[in-house]
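note to self — DONT lose this again. spent like an hour looking for the file last time. sequence + predicted structure for the chain T wanted, 68 res
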Amino acid sequence: MPGPVVSVGDVCKSFRFRTSGFGEGGLLRAVDMVSFEIGEGEILGLVGESGSGKTTVGRILLGVGRID
């Protein structure tokens, strides 16, 4: 049996944010330890609430986003 076509392991992505114009802020963990595999002929649906990191995972898969 062939291996997975796509394999994602323990992906994490954080974004820095500011709460004021004086540099205060923090770190927002948008994706935390996401792992999955997609085999040939399989379909994966990624669902979640707004702001849960779906687009961030997609951008990382496409090579547009960088992982931490």
